[in-house]
UniProtKB/TrEMBL annotation:
Pfam families: AHSA1 (PF08327). Gene3D superfamilies: 3.30.530.20. Coiled coil: none annotated. It comes from Phytohabitans rumicis. Belongs to the AHA1 family. InterPro entries: ASHA1/2-like_C, START-like_dom_sf. Residues 12-139 form the Activator of Hsp90 ATPase homologue 1/2-like C-terminal domain. This is Activator of Hsp90 ATPase homologue 1/2-like C-terminal domain-containing protein.
Amino acid sequence: MSELTYRRVHHAPPELLFDCMTQPEHLAHFWGPAGTHTPIDNIVVDLRPGGAFRTTMVNDADGSTYTMRAVYVEIRRPELLVWVEADVEGGMRTTITFVDLGDGRTEVVTHQTNVPEAYLSAAARAGFATSLDRFDAYLATIHKGA
């Protein structure tokens, strides 16, 4: 098992970014890599330690689905989100830190531990990067100055 870290600076305040990552009505607009979509009815957010976070992405090409099941471990709005996916070999842990840069921008650091080999490939990492691109595009539609 290994670790991955993704960093991205967004032109939005941490409160908005935190809300986008924790509210189904936002998540439905960007959750998942390019070539997938996640209907709002496929998203469960029980935002409390021990609460469920579940999404089912739909492949746009063939309709196949992929469900992610996680449990929130730590929640500190607007600076920190931590969840664990017990279904993923080794129990992959995702920590998202929202760092206010003080100029209307926020650095979002996504750190994953116990990452299975399949998620470490260049293709998997590129897919994750498209999720971040989709997040940026969505933010631009809802936040002036994005």
